[in-house]
Amino acid sequence: MKLLKNFVNGNWVSSLGPLPLRSQLNQASASAKNAFDLWRQVPVSERVRYLIKFCQLLNENRDELASICSQEHGKSKIESQGEIGRGIESVEHALGMPSMMMGSSLSQVAHGIDSMSIRQPVGVFAAITPFNFPCMIPLWFLPYAISSGNTFILKPSEQTPKTAEFIFSLLEKCSLPKGVVNLVHGSKEVVDAILEDENIVGVSFVGSSKVAKYIYEKGSQYSKRVQALGGAKNFMVVKSDANLELSLKSLCDSAFGCSGQRCLAGANIIAVGSCYEKLRAGLVTMAKSICCGPVISAAHKDRVLSYIAQGIAEGATLLLDGREENDEYENKSNHIGPTIFDDVLPCMSIAKEEIFGPVLCLMRAKNLNEAIEMINESPYANAATLYTSSGKNAALFTQLAQPSMLGINVGVPAPMAFFPFGGCKNSLFGSLKAGGEDAVRFYTDTKVVTSRWF
Ligand code: NAD
Known about the structure:
Keywords: NAD, Oxidoreductase. This is methylmalonate-semialdehyde dehydrogenase (CoA acylating). By secondary structure, this protein is α/β, with parallel strands linked by helices. The strands form five sheets. It has a seven-stranded mixed β-sheet with strand order 12-13-14-11-10-16-17, sandwiched between helices. A six-stranded mixed β-sheet has the order 7-6-5-8-9-19, with helices on both faces. A hairpin with a 2-residue loop joins strand 1 and strand 2. Helix 3 packs antiparallel against helix 7 and helix 4 runs parallel beside helix 6. The structure holds nicotinamide-adenine-dinucleotide (NAD).
């Protein structure tokens, strides 16, 4: 057994040291606060040079990083390599911080008076991240926070801590000044310590909606900036004018990829018009050929299995039963196969709640407007996709569907690093999302200087 280590003030320390978890967090925040005073004065062009080295190390160690990520998460190595690629893109994007941080100016705003705005770092930021993308999600935050001049603490998921530890071993090789980046392991106790810590000015969070709301409320109570990305229940609408053959693979990848443990997983399909019978048959055939990896834990498997039982009890028709795969492993592993329910009604819990497993619900709508209404009734609004060959349908969908990440014939509509990533309603607490321009806004304060020279 290997003990996890925290990285505090440039040193690795055992997470089971003599200090209680809260004190370890407080030490990390004190070291980050101390480092901030000097780090904020390092020119931004020099700050990003550390990230160039970090990018190079991430690229050189992709394979090992992917192995660690797959080993602790259970996702395939290709999936891990994919998320590492997306994480590296965030680091690359943050290399543009010198221009992203630029302010603006206007001369003669009044007689003899000029105004200029400048963006400045704010202080110590913390990120609290989920299990499902152990590499990519920490990298949604760390590069932007530090290149804009803040110092940073990561509290990764306690279910996937080793990927974060490896990422920090690479950061250690970048020779950043001590205290600029810190890693503290733990769960709720450390999260509460972060929220209550006076040195920490802001928190970036990704996880379930219940915890996201808690983080947002408690963080705000302690006067922090908070961006809290929550859970999802994503819809995929299939119109009869869609290319069904090509759409089927995209639909199944979205629903069953990563065993449904993605915040962008399409969990509900709404068939509109005459495509329904063909779609249903095609989905079952394709899903039967898919082998899902395990879900994250035995407790999570039980949760997914209980949703399947609930779906049956609520009167949905089980077209494909993924529990058989669990039976094959004699309940000794966390595998559940692709599961498809038909005749699902919007009021059923399997249609409303986030299951975060390989369970797909099939529903019907009379027309596109009715499908959009069904999407908009959900308390979540993370992502939605429309499969169609009509530009007019795509325009209507883009205009009226509420989720903030929309796909047109794209089952996993993940924005690239240069766009903001995140939803609205119960999928986001706060107003600024991860990445893109929102990251710069979240991690900087805009100062406006109004000047007159006598
Ligand atoms: P989770 O909410 O259980 O945990 C997320 C983080 O919060 C972890 O670091 C954990 O230690 C901490 N935490 C857990 N319970 C807590 C509590 N009671 N008090 C304080 N902190 C607590 O989420 P998870 O299971 O790790 O991840 C899956 C969830 O994340 C899903 O709901 C998924 O939709 C969501 N997610 C959302 C996005 C997005 O972009 N919106 C991206 C990825 C995952």
